[in-house]
Amino acid sequence: MQNYGWYAVPDSFKIYLRVDISVAVERAFLDQARKDTEPYASKKEAEEKIQYRHEQETKRWIEEYGVNRDDMSNYDFVIDTTRLSPEEICNRVIEAYQKWLEN
Question: Between the N and C ends of the chain, which has fewer C-beta atoms within 10 Å?
Fold first, then answer.
């Protein structure tokens, strides 16, 4: 599920979680919770479907709302999660949020 709070709630703290496509594919392919809703026969298929879905969603948002969700200026904090643990991500988000609150 996508989170579009950055657009729907303009005065909110907007975060973009970025990840390298190869890591996204690995995570999606190995995620047992997705096997029923997003079954992939191979990592290549997973990559193709993930990229296709991203492109289609980006195109739809531009057409329907006139907003490019891939424009990083839409966000208050952009973090690359590729090599970070969930704890590291949380800590960095909390730190960035506290700075955002001060401004």
Answer: N
